[in-house]
């Protein structure tokens, strides 16, 4: 009997040691990831010439790229919300034929390289639908509209996936209670479902907006790379790197980094701890 108790104790000690080793590895990997991000951001900031950054901020080209990026990304995010919220709800609440296939179709922009997405959009909105759209004055290819379309196409699936998770997390009984109180399906959605999914929807739209700000590949293919016309901040970085103006490119990259950091930190602080990206 004492020997069996000793074996049990040894086994328990071995399991505890295994767990300690496992979670020790977890902590090491976590610390490595955090330090890598700190050094990545710190390296970019330390390489900057802050006087040059100040000069770049005053340039007309930067002003155009900044304003253009902001309004196109906000518009693309609004369009993404228009499509993502209903799509996420349908995928979450309804059994539709070929649901796995449909869900995969929605995810395609996530897994496809942005350049390939841009080529696909170029073919669809150029040779295939270009003449039809032109009749209504909706030229998309090599235009500012093309920037919004490319941003919307690339970023919307992120919103769909995150918002769908928010809808999935809602207990259907909560919605059923609303129906028993006499609410119509539409009123249940507005009064019950949306408030319960609020944080997930906000998270999805934050992810969408930050993704649209940094979009480059699909935008370059569909809208082109034209200075002071379709020049987003990402395009400005590419153009100036190509011309050898490293200072302008780095300064613009730092501004994009600071915008992302400030936006995410501010939203997480003011919208509460439950908002996660």
Q: Measured on Cα atoms, how large is the radius of gyration?
A: 24 Å
Structural class: mainly alpha
How many structural domains are formed by the residues?
Answer: 2
Secondary structure: number of strands? 0
Report the uncertain regions. Answer: 273-277
The third-level CATH topology of the largest domain is MetI-like fold
Tally of helical runs: 13
Principal-axis shape equals: globular
Short note summarizing the structure:
The chain has helices at residues 2-46, 50-57, 60-93, 99-111, 114-128, 130-135, 144-168, 172-180, 185-196, 198-214, 217-223, 233-242, 246-271. It is an all-alpha fold and 277 residues long. Helix 7 packs antiparallel against helix 10 (198-214) and helix 12 packs antiparallel against helix 13.
Describe this structure in words.
The N and C termini lie far apart (54 Å). Helix content is 82%, strand content 0%. By secondary structure, the protein is mostly helical. Helix 3 (60-93) packs parallel to helix 7 (144-168), helix 5 (114-128) runs parallel beside helix 11 and helix 7 packs antiparallel against helix 10.
Write out key terms for the chains shown.
disordered C terminus; MetI-like fold; 277 residues; mainly alpha
Layout of SSEs?
Blueprint: H1 2-46, H2 50-57, H3 60-93, H4 99-111, H5 114-128, H6 130-135, H7 144-168, H8 172-180, H9 185-196, H10 198-214, H11 217-223, H12 233-242, H13 246-271
């Amino acid at each position: 009997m004492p020997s069996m108790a000793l074996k049990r104790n040894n086994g328990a000690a071995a399991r505890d040691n295994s767990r300690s080793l496992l979670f020790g590895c977890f902590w090491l990997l976590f610390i490595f990831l955090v330090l890598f991000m700190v050094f990545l951001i710190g390296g970019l900031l330390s390489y900057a010439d802050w006087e040059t950054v100040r000069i770049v901020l005053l340039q007309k080209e930067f002003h155009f790229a900044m304003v253009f990026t902001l309004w196109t990304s906000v518009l693309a995010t609004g369009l993404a919300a228009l499509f993502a919220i209903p799509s996420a709800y349908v995928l979450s609440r309804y059994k539709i034929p070929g649901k796995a296939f449909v869900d995969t179709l929605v995810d395609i922009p996530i897994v496809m390289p942005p350049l390939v997405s841009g080529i696909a959009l170029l073919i669809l909105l150029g040779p295939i639908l270009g003449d039809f759209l032109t009749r209504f004055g909706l030229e998309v290819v090599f235009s500012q509209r093309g920037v919004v379309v490319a941003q919307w196409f690339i970023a919307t699936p992120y919103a769909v996936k995150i918002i769908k998770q928010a809808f999935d997390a809602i207990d259907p009984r909560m919605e059923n209670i609303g129906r028993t109180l006499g609410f119509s399906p539409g009123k249940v959605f507005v009064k019950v479902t949306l408030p319960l999914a609020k944080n997930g929807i906000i998270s999805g739209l934050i992810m969408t907006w930050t993704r649209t700000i940094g979009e480059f590949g699909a935008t370059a293919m569909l809208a082109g790379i034209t200075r002071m016309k379709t020049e987003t901040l990402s395009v400005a970085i590419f153009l100036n790197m190509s011309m050898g103006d490293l200072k302008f490119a780095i300064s613009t990259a730092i501004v994009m980094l600071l915008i992302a950091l400030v936006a995410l930190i501010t939203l997480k602080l003011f919208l509460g701890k439950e908002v996660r990206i």
